[in-house]
């Protein structure tokens, strides 16, 4: 049975018009305020020739207008193609062609890159967010319902190899993600979710979707700033926040002796596997960290550590959300507990596939199960431990080496600010691990110290054979370490 | 896309084995305890020849064993046919034949009626709950997933005219009902839901389903007892309760000057339209009443008054749950606000139809909308006010008279304990309203007093033309007034 449910924003505004929808700097929008703005914008888009089923690309910052535009596209059942702001023009052109986007709407700061796109791909209509505002309105009837199988958003995965792939996220995927998360984290009318992740990333857009589905305000931040975040968390102005490790590390570094307000109930930690020492610090500081595991293809978290287990299972990302399932797979069969293998997930929040990628769809989506490309294992009780990306795995003399494990050890050294580990070719061992370090203080003996430090906890084959001091590590728009780019420090 | 989600109890036990599942008298079962019992029971049922797709009728009281049996059937994907304990043998036989139930499982107290059933319908296997216990176990694999479109339970509507109809409630209907309710009422890990409604009624079984979906304990009560309920609510042992008006009235009558604990956050009031004076009393006593509207066909509440509106819109049952919709329909088109008409609802919690009733399905389920058979209107803001059952409507001299409105006036008289109003034939007016009253104190002038009282607030045509003093009103197993049976006081 094809399930339809009411147009999210229209229904939410009908049900609770006066509840807060979101906060930006010192301004607050109720669902009613927002819907009025969104209706105007939708009518202007219609004037531009936008219609149901079209794809429109967005090159926008975390600002109120962006929230309105995202909702306006949903009012028209138009697919939003979220462009990562940090991409080059040629990378964007690839995504525009692949998604057959008719229009780009960009913030004024992206005027220059939009012109570049226009030069190499003149078939696309480019409009600044301000230009949309100047359009006249065309009267239309707004849709009453969404079909859960309809595509709502297209988001390109950074892609570990080859071209990025456009993940087709349906209204249903977002719905099930939001309700699955609610069954784990609870829903309270006191909640305000801090969105310091980019809205073009699944961790950002999923907050916007939860807001309209739960009837919960979110606090939108244009750019992550640890001092401002700490202020919000200490004063109790927000109750939940989504972060990745590097953000959390910066927050803790600038927190000093302050404590987060007791209303702050959930630090939802995603992205890379979190270093153990970070989790331990959070435990000491009584920060309620919920480790989670998820990706663009799962429309946000799919495995999360429950409240009751957050201390007992430190380092685990937990168990699947209620509507989801998980298995560890290797060579066509499920692994026993504690044996690492491919992490496979299933659930109605998992995207139905990639756009225009029949081969990738065949290899990644098998009988309803999605192969995440990550390696991990479950313990006897079914808690998931993520080791690494399959593609980041280093095989040295037949031994599997997980970069994240080495990085976690390095990060626990007092002089290490950031650490990245990858494999390089080795004539004897096939591959060997090498480390890239951002130091806190440059000392003459830093390398020897790190080797000695590693020898205390790591098997010999796991100890990096070379160390490189760097000023920063390659990270993507959501601050995730891109290990395959580490090698450029040596080769370029 | 056919959505599958994990077997509710198996997944819940996997995710949170040690959380409380339910409480009965002084005993507590965790999800793990319960699942162990349920697995044993399921294996015994298999020995009995029960298999996926079968229908099994249950004639059981609100007891732990009943909870286990309901879950055991779900483990086997067997449909549970819930028999109302108050039915006669011949009424039960009708439902057994209609649902093609293979077996009845009954509590020992229903031995006698089971024998009666056996006499008139020897083709059914009858087993007491104790007999099931004595069976040996057959090893099986438990299902990992439910298809949301599969039928989970069959529940017969009391039926206002003609034979009762078996409502087909799917796993998806229960799922969407639970998650839709959660989006309105919130989910807190402090919650314990009091189930004093029969488990064979949708208001009871829906608590059991929410428990396993939310991971929330419920407090099971064998039989509603206002003193025990008040004790639980005053001590804060439960936080939410489902009631109908008559239960709430009894609770208030015996509450005296006590107050419910501040942890008690929701009195979910369903069933008949609630008398205004009852709601006003609850407001005075700071009882957090959430009026709601729902039925067997909507798998529990579908329209509920939100927290923020409970005082502002006293008397309304609120707005639809997030995944649901509502319209007032008359003669093929939607009515304007404040014009009464048929209440139509739509949503993924609405049953797909009745078993073996193609004609009823055609008239009641139209383009995905279900005609509830109730009459009501919405105000300008979309809040629903339920007037009455279409079939209880009295038409007198061309005027519509809603029995519930008259009853509410009568109930606000200090000497009226209960009141029921129905229409009887009248040679001049077609029909005329008559009232049946349970008095608090018998006085010689009670009738004159009530007429005088009605004259103050009711138009002349609405004032009952005859009054009958009775000892009790006809109610069904969930305490709902059955107006069509009032007439028996005169005719029998």
What spatial form of chain A do the alpha-carbon principal axes imply? Answer: globular
The most extensive interface, with participating residues per chain, is: A-B, 41 and 42 residues
Total helices of chain A: the number is: 15
Largest sheet of chain A: 9 strands, mixed
End-to-end C-alpha gap of chain A: 55 Å
Percent helix among the residues of chain A? 25-40%
Strand order of the largest sheet of chain A: 3-2-12-11-13-14-15-16-17
Which spans of chain A have pLDDT < 50 for at least 5 consecutive residues? none
Query: Which range does the strand content of chain A fall in?
Result: 25-35%
Average pLDDT score of chain A? 92
Number of DSSP E strands of chain A? 28
For this structure, the quaternary state is homodimer
Radius of gyration of chain A: 23 Å
Structural class of chain A: alpha/beta
Describe the protein's architecture and organization.
The structure is a homodimer of 492-residue chains. Chain A is α/β, with parallel strands linked by helices and 492 residues long. Helices cover 31% and strands 28% of the residues of chain A. Chain A is built from 15 helices and 28 strands. In chain A, strands 3-2-12-11-13-14-15-16-17 form a nine-stranded mixed sheet, with helices on both faces. Chain A has a six-stranded mixed sheet with strand order 7-6-4-5-9-10, sandwiched between helices. In chain A, strands 18, 19, 20, 21, 22 and 23 form a six-stranded antiparallel sheet that branches. In chain A, a hairpin with a 4-residue loop joins strand 15 and strand 16. In chain A, helix 2 (31-47) packs across helix 3 (64-75) and helix 9 (226-235) packs across helix 10. The longest helix of chain A has 17 residues, at 31-47. The relative contact order of chain A is 0.09. At the A-B interface, strand 1, helix 1, helix 7 and strand 17 of A face strand 1, helix 1, helix 7 and strand 17 of B.
């Amino acid at each position: 049975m094809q399930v339809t449910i009411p147009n999210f924003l229209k229904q939410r505004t009908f049900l609770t018009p006066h509840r807060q929808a979101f906060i930006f700097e010192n301004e607050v929008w109720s669902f009613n305020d927002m819907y009025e703005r969104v209706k105007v914008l939708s009518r202007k888009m219609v004037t531009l020739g936008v219609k149901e089923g079209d794809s429109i690309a967005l090159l926008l910052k975390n600002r109120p207008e962006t929230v309105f535009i995202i909702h306006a596209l949903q009012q028209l059942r138009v697919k939003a193609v979220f462009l990562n702001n940090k991409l080059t023009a040629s990378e964007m052109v690839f995504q525009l062609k692949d998604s057959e986007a008719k229009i780009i709407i960009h913030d004024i700061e992206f005027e220059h890159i939009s012109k570049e796109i226009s030069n190499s791909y003149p078939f696309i209509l480019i409009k600044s967010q301000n230009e949309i505002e100047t359009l006249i309105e065309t009267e239309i009837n707004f849709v009453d319902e969404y079909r859960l199988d309809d595509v709502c958003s297209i988001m390109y995965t950074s892609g570990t190899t080859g071209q990025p792939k456009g993940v087709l996220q349906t209204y249903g995927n977002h719905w099930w993600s939001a309700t699955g998360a609610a069954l784990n984290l609870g829903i309270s009318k006191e909640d305000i979710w801090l969105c310091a992740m980019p809205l073009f990333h699944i961790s950002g857009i999923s907050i916007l979707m939860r807001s309209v589905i739960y009837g919960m305000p979110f606090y939108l931040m244009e750019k992550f700033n640890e001092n401002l975040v700490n202020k919000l968390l200490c004063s109790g102005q927000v109750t939940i926040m989504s972060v990745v490790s590097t953000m959390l590390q910066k927050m803790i570094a600038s927190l000093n002796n302050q404590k987060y307000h007791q209303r702050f109930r959930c630090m939802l930690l995603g992205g890379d596997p979190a270093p153990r020492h970070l989790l331990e610090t959070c435990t000491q500081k009584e920060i309620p960290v919920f480790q989670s595991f998820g990706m663009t293809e799962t429309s946000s978290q799919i495995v999360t550590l429950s409240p009751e287990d957050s201390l007992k299972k430190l380092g685990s990302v937990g168990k699947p959300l209620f509507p989801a399932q998980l298995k560890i797979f290797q060579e066509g069969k499920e692994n026993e507990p504690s044996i690492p293998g491919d992490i496979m997930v299933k659930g109605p929040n998992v995207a139905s596939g990639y756009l225009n990628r029949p081969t990738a769809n065949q290899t990644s989506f098998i009988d309803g199960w999605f192969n995440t490309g990550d390696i991990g294992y479950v313990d006897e009780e079914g808690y998931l431990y993520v080791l690494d990306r399959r593609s980041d795995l280093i095989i040295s003399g037949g031994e599997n080496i997980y970069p994240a494990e080495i990085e976690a050890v390095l990060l626990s050294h007092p002089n290490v600010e950031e650490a990245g580990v990858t494999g390089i070719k080795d004539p004897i061992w096939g591959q060997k691990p090498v480390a890239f370090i951002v130091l806190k203080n440059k000392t003459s003996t830093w390398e020897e110290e790190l080797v000695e430090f590693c020898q205390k906890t790591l098997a010999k084959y796991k100890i990096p054979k070379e160390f490189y001091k760097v000023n920063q590590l390659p990270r993507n728009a959501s601050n995730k370490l891109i290990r395959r780019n580490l090698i450029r420090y040596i080769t370029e």
